[in-house]
Design a protein that fits this description.
Blueprint lengths: L9 H14 L5 H8 L3 H13 L4 E3 L5 E3 L12 H14 L5 H17 L2 H12 L20 H11 L1 E9 L4 E14 L4 E7 L4 E6 L3 E10 L8 H7 L7 E8 L3 H5 L8 E5 L2 E8 L2 H8 L6 E5 L1 H16 L4
Antiparallel strand pairs: 1-2, 3-4, 3-7, 4-5, 5-6, 8-10, 8-11, 9-10
Helix pairs in contact: 1-3, 2-3, 4-5, 4-6, 10-11
Length: 325
């Protein structure tokens, strides 16, 4: 029994079918029916309608449908909701420390606005005027050029499978090291970007914070990705951050429901202890975590690591010192 049509109207489904076949060729009628939650008979009618409207559909030797290379859709039309989503995304990217990301996000935002109908443009402008994206790091954006181009260069190295050599600062040892790596992916954590790469120095996959890469150069030499490597699987199973700490916190039970939704990491352990809740996870930025904990006052206590205990105590004493004058 087919499911409800997940794509809404037939026109929307036809448009989505074109995009799908251009990005995932060789899909069978069964594949398409399962994707859209409709019957194969409906898919056959859709494909016939597309052919009759001039879309160059073919049936490949591999046993699925595809669209001849070179076919282009008419100019993209966005709904108000889709346009708002894109523009909010560009505003978020404009808060990044990498200057090239901020510049590109600004250009993309202008291009999107330039092709929107007046009514939708006015809608997203009103939304933009009344939406604030202000993560804590936005006021600490680095000076122009200090980190410029690093994210873009590494994203190209990831996409083109090119080796990278770099000078990387290991904060835990206060040491600048020379690394030769195979970049496998980029991931954004709570407050920074990380490069996931095979490190030839350590002979294993490691995480590198972009803001700790002092110098870097993308080589023309290519590499083969590890067989079966999947970035999401790696992050879930092995790697969370470059220099992680095991963090254990205790909160008053009364406030924990509010705290839980704000914890900036994946929770590993959680237990109730006499009117309090203890929670454990891994995190690397102790300064950020110490500041984050202040919002919960005396209802929050650090159990480990000792470094975070010290940072949290100093942050609290610094606040108290403002009133001892």
């Amino acid at each position: 029994m087919p499911k409800n049509d997940k794509q809404g109207t037939r026109t929307e489904r036809l448009f989505a079918t074109i995009l799908l076949l251009q990005n995932r060729p060789n899909m069978t009628s069964r594949d398409l029916a399962e994707h859209f939650g409709v019957s194969r008979r409906t898919i056959f009618r859709d494909l016939r309608a597309l052919s009759e409207s001039g879309v160059p559909l073919t049936y490949s030797e591999g046993g699925g449908y595809e669209i001849l290379e070179g076919y282009q859709l008419p100019p993209l039309m966005l709904t108000a909701r889709e346009a708002a989503t894109l523009l909010v995304g560009t505003e978020f990217m404009r808060l990044q420390s990498d200057a090239s990301l901020r510049e590109d996000a600004g250009e993309v935002s202008l291009k999107i606005r330039s092709v929107l109908p007046r009514e939708i443009r006015e809608y997203v402008d009103r939304l933009s005027e009344n939406t604030v994206l202000d993560p804590y790091w936005s006021h600490a954006v680095q000076s122009e050029g200090e980190e410029s181009g690093k994210w873009f260069k590494l994203s190209e190295a990831v996409a083109r499978s090119r080796k990278v050599i770099m000078e990387y600062f290991v904060e835990s040892r206060g040491e600048l090291t020379q690394r030769r790596v195979d970049p496998l992916g980029l991931v954004y954590y709570t407050d920074h970007w990380n490069l996931i790469a095979f490190d030839h120095l350590r002979d294993e996959i490691r995480n590198f914070r972009l803001d700790r890469i002092e110098e870097m150069f993308v080589l023309t030499e290519k590499f083969d990705r590890p067989e079966g490597f999947d970035l999401q699987t790696y992050l879930e199973g092995e790697g969370r951050s470059a220099d992680p700490f095991r963090v254990k916190l205790s909160f008053a039970e009364a406030i924990y429901p509010r705290v839980r939704s704000q914890i900036p990491a994946r929770i590993d352990e959680e237990s109730e202890q006499k009117g309090r809740v203890e929670v454990a996870f891994t995190f690397e930025n102790m300064d950020y975590l110490a500041g984050w904990l202040l919002r919960f006052g005396a209802d929050a206590e650090v159990l480990e690591p000792d470094l975070l205990v010290d940072r949290h105590r100093k942050a609290a004493l610094a606040i108290a010192g403002n009133y001892d004058k």
